[in-house]
């Protein structure tokens, strides 16, 4: 299992389109991928879970990947957050 | 269950007695309906099918958005697809269906409630949008589930009465009409599209029946009285029997009319009256032919627009559609009215922004001239089809003309289109008859001038009455003031008939007044010789015409035109015609 903590830096936080990108990325891997805040942890392959996660700008989320491709999965998810989901701000 | 009654306006005659099916478009609390254990998996499958259908609809919207607004905008639909197929969401709904053994709609509504509660606990402004996205998708699935219920009517072994708050025409045309005994609608008016569909299929209907849905939700049996506009819920046996005999009596009267099918429409003193049909849907041609009409006096081409929606129909679609229609009618003339969009009808897609006063806004020919591409496509198709049939078979009619300019511009467009088509090698007739619908008072006042610019005129009494009297008849507060028998309206009608006679231009009438037994004798007396009505009214009007004499009706018209109020006119006509109507068994 891999674990990392990353900040949410885009203006709108984990909104619908950003969450969709997370799901698409997560679905490319067999590993279980969980994303959590202090309060709760949700499945990164479920858009509804991600949307109900109160991840706004400035919060930090913890990503856990667990499975055969956990390293690649972690790298892809972290990159997505660092790129602000492809958004300008 | 105890008896209850709700009343609106009867818009399509007849009596329907049967089980109600309630259809509501507005958000409504879901009903919890137990599902027998052996049907639970079927219910789960129904839910999955609704999800997949919703996904298909979202994908169609996405494709359109991508084309019109760009990739970034379309990506929101990608999120919506993921929401609809979210594994934890599907699992929650299916678990409720299975463990509680309930209908999918109820299960979905429960899950929706939980989701909304979760969002409400979060309470950040940015999160509000996320809630709306989720709500949007779940509502679409709910609607699909309800919509499927209506489509499931096809599988019913007995017909039902539809009770709905609103029934959009796009949905009404998809219904298996042979399974429907009657319609009771909370919204809608006498000229709304669903009303027209009900009437043209001889299905009893009432509109403006407030509270119908709530009342019918628990009813086992309803009676719909399309004459009185009444919906009776759970009537007792005696009352059902009364309605049953009322229904039989009406059907007998209708059957009695069948004998006029092949008889000529000639008055007792030898004046020939042409009877034409108004139609909306291609299927209505059957009824028109059955009643042996002299042609189609008004084909409302909007159906084609609805069918092609959300796209605009292509020229080839127009051509194929008209050709099929005309082929069935030839050599009888077919008058096709160009798109009469705008007003309250179907305009949103075309205009975009809402108008403050759409009935006085960009509609009819105004909209056509403002969007010439869309109009030219239709004109090209009409000219092409006209070229494939004997001269004069296809006729083009322009809606909502307010003066001669619009007809001049249209004539010029028609000439340009004909020249273009000829250059492209199409068969183009020397002249395609072009007519104006007179429904704006200014056009009626200027009927002489207008008659010199057109090949024919058709009076649309519904809008003419509404515009002359400044009355919206769908507005209950003033609906009583809507009277085609108002002397102000009758004068305009008389003016148009006279102008046609003077200029040698044929005049017909395609409004509802043309099928009103009280108005027909008056109109014949005023000199009208062409009546275009819904196909079901043809035998009634023909029977009437055959019993009238022009000499008597012209006398009747002279007297009626001397009166000063709508009420005086109506009372006079009733008094003069009551015995006559009783004799020929006409119900006024």
Descriptive account of the structure:
The complex is a heterodimer of chains A (89) and B (588). Chain A has 89 residues and is α+β, with helices and mostly antiparallel strands. Chain A contains 3 helices and 4 strands. Chain A has a 4-stranded antiparallel sheet with strand order 1-4-2-3. In chain A, α1 (16-26) packs antiparallel against α3. The longest helix of chain A has 13 residues, at 70-82. Chain A is globular, with a radius of gyration of 11 Å. Chain B is of the alpha/beta class and 588 residues long. In chain B, α16 (404-423) links the parallel β13 and β14 (434-438). In chain B, α2 crosses α5 (125-151), α3 (87-100) crosses α4 (104-122) and α21 crosses α23. The two termini of chain B are 35 Å apart. The mean pLDDT of chain B is 88. The A-B interface holds A 12-13, 15-17, 19-20, 23-24, 43, 45-49, 51-52, 54, 56 and B 75-76, 78-80, 82-83, 86-89, 115, 118-119, 122, 124, 126-127, 129-130, 133-134.
